[in-house]
Specification:
5-stranded antiparallel beta sheet, single chain, alpha+beta, about 30% helix
Length: about 475
C-alpha cells in the first residue's frame, strides 16, 4: 500500500492498496488464484459462502488504515528524533556496530543486517541512520530508557488512532511502559511493535514538519450544488512532539541518508529529498517472511510532500526496503514533484549527466537542424543529400547528452536498422558504449544511475535482439551494485 500526503497539513493526496478491485463490481474477486479456487467450489456450500465472504472482506480492506505491520528501520527516525530532543545523544555522540555486528541485551543477542566481516564500526547518528545500523539504535534507545522511549512513542500517536476520516481505522499492538530491556532494544530499531501505515506516515510527518502531529484528512472541503463551500477542513494539530530545531536536524540527517547512498535510496537528480528505508521480519509467521518499506519527503529543507510505501511479503530475489520499495518511490515522486510545481535544480556538474529532451527538427533546413542538435549537446548524423530533414531518429523523448540523432534528407529514404544488444550487468558507461556500437542511444533511469558502479538492472524499454531504427533510445533502469542499507 502507499500513501502520499502533505506533511504540514495532513491532507492526503493519494492512497492505494494493491491488489485493488473495481468499485463498480466490488463483489467480483480480482485475485486470480483465489477466484479459481472459489470457482471450483459448490456455490451453495457453506465452505464457499465462508470463503467468498472472507475474500471480499480482504479485498475491500484498506491496508493503509485497517491493518498493522512491523515498521522496521523506518521507525529509527522516531528513536533518533526522541533522543536528540531529550539530548540523551548529540550529533557528536558515537556508537559501535560491535565486533560481530551485534549487540547483546541480557540474554538476547541482536544482529545488525550487515555481516560481521562488514560491520559498520564506530558511527555518529548521521552515519548510523545512513547505514541503518541496528546495534547503534539499540544503544540510542538505551540512552532514552523505557519511560522516555514510551513517552515519545505515545506522543507520536502510536497508541491511538490518527483520526483520519475513513472507516475501519485500527491501532497497532505495542509494548507499554512496562516493557523489558529486551523489548526496548527490539522496539528501538523497529521490531517488537506494530503500527498502521497511516500512523507511521503521520509520525514521520511530525518528525520533519517542525515537530507537529497533525490529523490526516481525506476531505478538503464540502461544497453545495452551486459550488459554495459548506465546510472547509482546516489543519488540526494535536500537539508538538519535538522542537523546530530537532526537526531541522532530522531533515538534515535524512537528506544525508539519501544523498550518501543514492543507489539504495529515493535519490532523484536535481531534488533535495530525505528518506529512510525499512525491512522488518514477520516473526509471528516466519523468520524468512518480510515487510519492505520506504518513507520519503521533499523538498528536504522545507518539506511539503511525504510518501510511505509498504510492500507486504515481497516474493522476489530481494526483500530489502532499499531495493523493493525505494525504486517505486523514485518512480512515483519523479512524476508527483513536477506535477505539484517542484522542478529539479542542477549544478553544472550534474547537468553534464542529466538526460536531455530531443528537439524535433523534421522539415527544417539540414544546417539549421544540425546547429539545433549541437546546441543541445547532441550529435547529428546526416543520411542522404537533400537540403531538408524529412525524418529523424529519435523523433523526441529523453536521451543522454552526447547521443546521436540520425537525420534523413531524401524523400524515399530507407531507415537503417540494427539489433538491440544485451546490456544486463553493465555499468552506465559500458551500456552506453555497447549501444553506441550498434548506433543506439541510452537513457539511464533509476536512483543508482549517477552512482559509480551502478549496473543495468531489471528493466529496459526495448528487448534484446529486437530490430529497431538506428538512433533509437533504449531506456534502462540501473541498480546499485551493493546494498548499503535496509
Amino acid at each position: 500500500c502507499g500513501i502520499i500526503m502533505n506533511c504540514k497539513t495532513g491532507q492526503v493526496y493519494a492512497m492505494a492498496t494493491a491488489t485493488g478491485f473495481d468499485p463498480n463490481q466490488p463483489s467480483e474477486i480480482y485475485d486470480k488464484m483465489l477466484a479459481a479456487e472459489l470457482s471450483a467450489l459448490d456455490k451453495e456450500s457453506e465452505e464457499y459462502k465462508k470463503k467468498i465472504e472472507e475474500a471480499r472482506g480482504k479485498q475491500w480492506t484498506n491496508k493503509a488504515v485497517c491493518e498493522s505491520y512491523t515498521p522496521g528501520s523506518v521507525f529509527k527516525i522516531v528513536t533518533a528524533s526522541s533522543a536528540l530532543e531529550e539530548k540523551t545523544i548529540t550529533t557528536e555522540s558515537t556508537f559501535s556496530c560491535g565486533s560481530n555486528a551485534s549487540f547483546t541485551v541480557m540474554d538476547t543477542t541482536f544482529s545488525c543486517w550487515t555481516s560481521p566481516a562488514n560491520n559498520h564500526g564506530v558511527q555518529n547518528i548521521y552515519d548510523a541512520m545512513k547505514n541503518s545500523c541496528n546495534p547503534v539504535f539499540i544503544q540510542v534507545g538505551q540512552t532514552l530508557g523505557v519511560d522516555k522511549f514510551f513517552k515519545y512513542f505515545e506522543s507520536y500517536g502510536f497508541t491511538e488512532k490518527t483520526g483520519i476520516d475513513l472507516p475501519g481505522e485500527i491501532t497497532g499492538i505495542y509494548h507499554g511502559a512496562d516493557m523489558t530491556p529486551v523489548d526496548l532494544a527490539a522496539c528501538s530499531f523497529g521490531q517488537g511493535n506494530t503500527v498502521t501505515p497511516i500512523q507511521m506516515i503521520t509520525a514521520a510527518s511530525a518528525v520533519v514538519n517542525g515537530g507537529y502531529l497533525v490529523t490526516p484528512q481525506i476531505v478538503d472541503k464540502i461544497t453545495d450544488p452551486d459550488g459554495n463551500i459548506v465546510e472547509d477542513y482546516e489543519r488540526v494539530v494535536k500537539r508538538q512532539v519535538i522542537s523546530e530545531d530537532t526537526s531541522v536536524l532530522m531533515r538534515e540527517i535524512l537528506q544525508y541518508v539519501v544523498d550518501g547512498s543514492p543507489g539504495s535510496n529515493c535519490y532523484i537528480q536535481g531534488y533535495k529529498i530525505g528518506g529512510k528505508s525499512g525491512t522488518s521480519q514477520k516473526l509471528t509467521i516466519s523468520a524468512d517472511t518480510y515487510v519492505a518499506s520506504y518513507c520519503a519527503f521533499a523538498p528536504a529543507d522545507d518539506p511539503e510532500v511525504i510518501m510511505l510505501l509498504m510492500v507486504d511479503e515481497p516474493n522476489g530475489a530481494s526483500y530489502y526496503g532499499s531495493e523493493v520499495a525505494a525504486p517505486v518511490c523514485v518512480e512515483v515522486l519523479s512524476d508527483v514533484l513536477p506535477y505539484m510545481g517542484y522542478f529539479p535544480e542542477y549544478t553544472e556538474e550534474e547537468l553534464k549527466k542529466v538526460s536531455i529532451s530531443v528537439p524535433n527538427v523534421e522539415y527544417t533546413d539540414v544546417e539549421d537542424a544540425k546547429k539545433t542538435l549541437q546546441y543541445n549537446d547532441l550529435k547529428p548524423i546526416v543520411v542522404g543529400n537533400g537540403k531538408n530533414v524529412v525524418h529523424q531518429m529519435p523523433v523526441s523523448g529523453a536521451t543522454s547528452r552526447g547521443s546521436t540523432v540520425v537525420l534523413y534528407t531524401d524523400e524515399n529514404y530507407t531507415a537503417e536498422m540494427t539489433e538491440v544488444p544485451p546490456i544486463s550487468e553493465l555499468t552506465v558507461e559500458e551500456a552506453k558504449k555497447v549501444l553506441a556500437e550498434k548506433g543506439l542511444n541510452l537513457n539511464p533511469n533509476g536512483a543508482a544511475t549517477f552512482e559509480e558502479g551502478a549496473i543495468a538492472a531489471y528493466d529496459q524499454s526495448i528487448g534484446v535482439g529486437q530490430s529497431v531504427e538506428k538512433g533509437s533510445v533504449v531506456s534502462v533502469t540501473f541498480n546499485s551494485s551493493t546494498i548499503s542499507s535496509q
